[in-house]
Amino acid sequence: MENSISLKSQFKKYVVPSVAAMWVFSLYSMVDGIFVSKGVGSDALAAVNISTPYINMLFAISILFATGASTVVAIKLGSSENKKANEYFTLNLVVMVILAAIIMLVSLLNLDKIAVFLGATNSTMVYVKEYVGTIMLFTLFYLASYYLEVLIKSDGYPHLATIGVIISAITNIVLDYIFVIKLGYGVKGAAVATGIARVFSFSFFFIHFLRKRGKLKFTKFHFDFSVVKKVLFIGIPDSTTELSVAVVILIFNQSILRVIGENALVSYSVVCYINTLVLTTMMGISQGIQPICSYYYGKKDKDSVLSILKMGMKTIRISSIVSFLIVFVFAKQLVLLFLNNVDEGLFNYTVNVLRLFSPAFLIMGYNVITSGFCVAVDMPVQAGIVSLGRGVVVITITLIVMILIFGGFGIWIATLVSELIVLIISKNVLKKSKESLEYEYSEAV
């Protein structure tokens, strides 16, 4: 990351691959949903959505390490401490691999309990166990592939991150078609396709670091719990943002079953897939600016840090408006990707609730990038206030209140109300974070 490169060029260099990578992640589950819906049926579609919180949990753990390590490593690279950067990079990968093995073993031994906890019903239990049980076998690759993908950007090769995830995405789509449609392996086939795609992306990124092309490489290290603790502390806000998706899906699934009925789970599955694509777009922008902000934060270049934030905010604003308009105007076409209109009542209901949900897309991006910026400038407490607020606390309380007031209708507008409440918190947090940044640099001078 050289000063001769304009900030705008750096912004594009890092944000575009980051958004592309996040799209690919959301497309993994979306493609699985589309194929199992067409190849198996609506119950299978609902089962994949019920299984989503487990996958979100795996991804949240990966983000926990990846975001934290990326921030710490980027700051060390910015201050020319390359040896420390390599040690931290390797240490956290090893810790995450050990954790992945533990998660896989514990999950496989408790598959039935996990399926029940996720909310599997009598009609979806078999599908949920097949899908989640297969995904568990690929836990290591789920966690490590995203970690290496984020760190390859900190190493100065964001284009390789894009190439890696595109290879993985194409693999997933092709294998989904072969396993689900052609060979009739059902939801298990979709899960195997997704797992193999993760193996491909992991292998691509791993080979890069073995070649030692950039500044980062695998090296010997001394275990330092304080480093791991710092990485986890920094990564909590972004991880919480992803984990919140799992928590929200669980809570919404249970609420829908009790208030509306099982058929509405199919509608919520479609809403979830669209929401995940939009949310990951916002997260991609947020995570794209983080290594640049962290780099200039390490160099104590306040003006560059704030300029990158301004570009990020502008991009978020445009993306939010475009996302809302596309979903609201083309709701029928989007629903048709997952459901045919043979069951006209279910189809029309899904279109209506998707449009009810869509105004939340206008706001959530601001909250996500506020949390991400605070992470980048080593203010995890402020980031946590926003991410925990929008991800768990506010949305849970809002959902309960909306159901009490509006019944089933309240479920579909709860996210919008929640994001509006968090927006007020975000504006205050961002203002104080900027003031803190100004004070820190004035003290350094």
TrEMBL record:
The UniProt record lists the keyword Transmembrane: yes
Bilayer topology: Multi-pass membrane protein
UniProt-annotated location(s): Cell membrane
InterPro entries found in the cross-reference section: MATE_fam (IPR002528), MATE_MepA-like (IPR045070), MATE_MepA_subfamily (IPR051327), MdtK-like (IPR048279)
Keywords: Antibiotic resistance, Cell membrane, Membrane, Transmembrane, Transmembrane helix, Transport
Transmembrane spans: 14-35, 55-77, 89-111, 131-148, 160-179, 191-210, 231-253, 273-297, 318-339, 359-377, 384-405, 411-430
Family label: Belongs to the multi antimicrobial extrusion (MATE) (TC 2.A.66.1) family. MepA subfamily.
PANTHER family: MULTIDRUG EXPORT PROTEIN MEPA, SPORULATION PROTEIN YKVU
Protein name (database record): Multidrug export protein MepA
Highest classification ranks of the organism: Bacteria, Bacillati, Bacillota, Clostridia, Peptostreptococcales
